[in-house]
Amino acid sequence: MQDDLIARAQAWLAEDPDPETRAELAALLDAGDTDELAARFAGTLQFGTAGLRGELGAGPLRMNRSVVIRAAAGLAAYLKKQGTPHGDGTAGLVVIGYDARHKSADFARDTAAVMTGAGLRAAVLPRPLPTPVLAYAIRHLGAVAGVEVTASHNPPRDNGYKVYLGDGSQIVPPADAEIAAEIAAIASLHDVPRPDTGWEILGDSVLDAYLARTDAVLAEDSPRTARTVYTAMHGVGKDVLLAAFARAGFPAPALVAEQAEPDPDFPTVAFPNPEEPGAMDLAFAKAREEDPDLVIANDPDADRCAVAVKENGAWRMLRGDEVGALLAAHLVARGAQGTFAESIVSSSLLGRIAEKAKLPYEETLTGFKWIARVDGLRYGYEEALGYCVDPEGVRDKDGITAALLITELASTLKAEGRTLPDLLDDLAVEHGLHATDQLSVRVEDLSVIADAMRRLREQPPAELAGLPVTRAEDLTEGTEKLPPTDGLRYTLRGARVIVRPSGTEPKLKCYLEVVVPVADHEALPAARAKAADLLTAIKRDLSTAAGI
Asked: Which residue among 362, 367, 374, 445 is the one 20 to 30 A from 24 at the CA level?
């Protein structure tokens, strides 16, 4: 067994094109560190609908150039089997974007070389840019596919590889399994041609076109007065967001200087995710200096948008569901037509808003790969700070255009002497207070997640927070409207709980919602207190039931 492990590591080493990971692996072999070798060679990173994501390092269970070259070759083989989309015999174009993480530029260049070697055309964005620019470029350039090298808001040691097809949406089954099968069929990297030239490095015309498209997000004569503080969270959002805000005529955002420039080590935060505790501390400090109307944060690849507001003299992050409802209400007020959609883990308030406006409404599985595919989509969001406000431009979440739209709404309310919290209050009185929270457990050992899911399946709770569970659904069986997924949904009297493993991080996520009727604005404080107590009790009881 040990001999086999050593042999596999030596075979991997022999074809690894990266001097850094070669040296890393050679050192492990020289030291005879079989535990660490086993951790890297116990399998392979699995390609799924989220593409690839994992820790950087040598070996098939890490993100590295060898793994990326295999993934690119598998994708190329899949695309060639699909045939030429235009039927004219020309080679299909694959457009490639990347963020500013460690190795991202290398992975993008390797992908371009593999695509070129496979007889496809490849074009690489000119520098690290937001993921939504890549998603836009796919349809703008008529590409057959797009690749974004990013690990979004994961820790600094991670990187990832996200795949879109020619419709500009992320892949869904069965494409993921078909691409994975092509990846698995690659015997050796020596079989994968990688020329040194032959692909195109794009100029700024694609970015210019994306920025021009952002004009469509805002109403023609809307107020543009709201003042913002902005943090790029050490990612790639700053220059594009500033250009979009300047183009729209908003006041220039005050920058959180310590987090404004790309830095793959994310030195000021534990995790570069606006939702994580402490991540917004520097932005709030800047807000106390500047006293803006709102604070905006992007995650490192700028496909998510976080918003904070001042309430009772203190700054607080709005939940993704609150921003989702605010943007929906704003679009309804502007007369938007088309389907409103969200993932099943997001607040049911969107459905109430759509119903009142007599607009079509759809629920999907988690992820914009599903939301973006809803027929007639006008607006889609999910609670993890992802908003698609211009599906004709970008069929994915877009933290730049979401920032524009929420700043337009803040400007509109400001002209009326009102604020974003005032509008949230109005929505609560009109539709009931929809309060959401999340119980999220990060684990070192993935078996903890599997054990919790098994325990809940074997012994589903009969009640949570004293509320009877009126319906328990195992989503692995699918429903009338949803394909199968690893998740559990509990419907309670006046509440809802969904439990699922994260698709991109070692986390178990539990999404909670309670709905409390509100008679009028005077009843809001009591309704909020009741909702907070219920959410706390549901968290406590769910933790006990799941054994976490």
From this structure: 445
**310: which DSSP letter?**
E
For residues 394 and 146, give the distance between their C-alpha atoms in angstroms, rounded to a whole number: 13
DSSP string, 257-289: GGGSS--TT-TT-SSS-TTSTTTTHHHHHHHHH
Enter the pTM of the model. 0.95
Q: Give the closest residue to 258 by CA, choosing from 280, 282, 235.
A: 282
66, 104, 152, 411: which is the annotated catalytic residue?
Answer: 152
Q: Which amino acid is at 6?
A: I
- Three-class secondary structure of residue 194 per DSSP: coil
**Is there a catalytic annotation at residue 502?**
no
Rounded to 10°, the helix 65-82/104-117 angle is 40
Quote the CA–CA distance of 495 and 434 in Å, as a whole number: 9
Structure tokens of 217? Answer: 């997000």
**pLDDT digits over 209-263, tens only?**
999 999 999 999 999 999 999 999 999 999 999 999 999 999 999 999 999 999 9
pLDDT tops 90 at residue 85: no
Residues 6+ away with beta carbon under 8 Å from 91: 84, 119, 120, 121
Region label for 397, one of left (φ > 0), alpha (ψ between -120 and 50) or beta (otherwise): beta
